Amino acid sequence: MKKTMTLVSAALLSVGMTAVSLPAQAAWPNAVNGQEMPSLAPMIETVSPAVVSVSVEGTQVARQAIPEPFRHFFGREREQARPFRGLGSGVIIDADKGYVITNHHVIDNADKILVNLSDGREFEAKLIGSDPATDVAVLEIEPDELTAVKLADSDTLRVGDFTVAIGNPFGLGQTVTSGIVSALGRSGLGNGENLENFIQTDAAINSGNSGGALVNLKGELIGINTAIIAPSGGNVGIGFAIPVNMVQSLTAQIIEFGEVRRGILGILGGELTSETAKLFGMETTHGAYVSQVFPDSAADAAGLKAGDIIVSVDGKKIKTFQELRAKVATKGAGATVKLGVIRDGDEKTFKVTLNEAPGENVQASVIHPALEGAKLSSYDEDGVRGVVISEVAERSPAAAQGLAEGDVIVQVNLLNRGRTNVRDLGQLRELFEDYQGVFAATILRDGVARQVILR
User: Binning pLDDT at 50, 70 and 90, where does residue 91 land?
Assistant: First the structure.
């Protein structure tokens, strides 16, 4: 530093100027011409307590191919359980109830989840539920003097808006980076089955930022950081966040039902290409082209037809079919949406009440240890309501206690609490919220009721 200062002084003197010694940074003014220097510090100090670090421990099953000479004895492959540890981030959205949002991939297969606050406190977290297709998970911690972040309206975001990312990159501890909204409605990052409608930002996001907060300059949450494009393994200025409006709808469903009850329109379609736009006399290629409407679907009931071009959802313009798919699916079954549609050159509005998509599977271990190894979803068919077991892992606690794929849990009997008819997965989760003891379950198997004791 001294050498640099000497060179600067010499340069000033060489042109006939008097060198002035620079004051120490601590003595620099906080204001220029009577105005305070701009700083994000006040906003960061308000938001930081709501952003947490998430550490997990668990076991992953790895499959290993068996060499050809030994396959006669051991089969083609074997499974090996391997312990793992992971780090991520999360955001407190409800201080009174202790709800924390993070990514599904942060807590996937975790047996133990710890949440660390910025003030150094640590809580063991309970997994309320998660949604792999959108990469959202909801945790619950003790509501002990917590701070929640305020939520923005992510539908009002514009490219160029300033953003601030807060998280736990590389396990270093809480870190803040800034940037702008680089793009909106990004998709195509996953395997095609995921629901993607990402905010793209150039705020530095690295490994460990997953589940952290993306906020605006008011300190309001606009998204949950979830993914990066990193050919070199680090930040290259392209990060992605799930819009908070999507997150709100998903978390509300997970908290109420223990799962996401995904809405569905009942259409097939694709992107509005330039050729299709010209065919319909449109000057823009923003929108979703409807190629087929399924009979008796929500779209059919509302009057949509093949050839329609959907250009907005609830008054907000959409750019792609993927954006339409993500917004509709995360609204939730039974929700009513307004679709802006161009038909024969005229713009019309249709109100559509969404049907429920086929049920999502939830890992049963989050409800009771005796159910570990089973996957559950809500069941409502032929006048029977309950929770169906869609899958049972071999040699799991659920399999060892006699549960099988296709069983429908219609009633549970908890010690000192009596019998309760089971309506859906959310109610079952509530029944076991503070109960881990032995219980009896009445199940339907091939139409015949039977009772099993589970420990």
Answer: very high
Q: Which of 429, 373, 363 is nearest to 402 (CA)?
A: 373
Does the annotation list 210 as a binding residue? yes
- Can you tell me the distance from the alpha carbon of 163 to that of 205, in angstroms, rounded to the nearest whole number? 12
Active site (annotated) includes residue 135: yes
Residue 166 among known ligand-binding residues: no
Position 129 in a domain: yes
Active-site residue, selected from the candidate residues 53, 55, 154, 210: 210
| Candidate list 131, 135, 308, 407, residue with the active-site label | 135
Please measure the distance between the N-terminal and C-terminal CA atoms of the chain and give it in whole angstroms. Answer: 69
Q: Is the domain of 316 the same as that of 351?
A: yes
pLDDT digits (tens, 9 = 90+) for 319-357: 888 889 889 988 888 899 999 999 888 889 999 999 877
Burial class (CB in 10 A: 0-12, 13-18, 19+), 392: buried
Q: Is residue 119 located within the same domain as residue 150?
A: yes
Same domain, 237 and 368: no
Given the residues 105, 108, 118, 155, select the one marked as catalytic. Answer: 105
What is the residue type of 227? Answer: A
Q: Is 55 a catalytic residue?
A: no
- Annotated binding residue at 135? yes
Among 223, 239, 256, which residue terminates a domain? 256
209 is annotated as contributing to ligand binding: yes
Residue 253 and residue 133 in contact, taking contact as beta carbons nearer than 8 Å: no
- Rounded to 10 degrees, the C-alpha dihedral 248/251/252/254 comes to 160
CB atoms within 10 A of CB 374: 29
**Catalytic residue flag (residue 344):** no
Question: Is 199 known as a binding-site position?
Answer: no
According to DSSP, the residues that pair with 213 across neighbouring strands are 166, 224
Mean pLDDT of the chain: 84
The Cα–Cα gap between 237 and 200 comes to 9
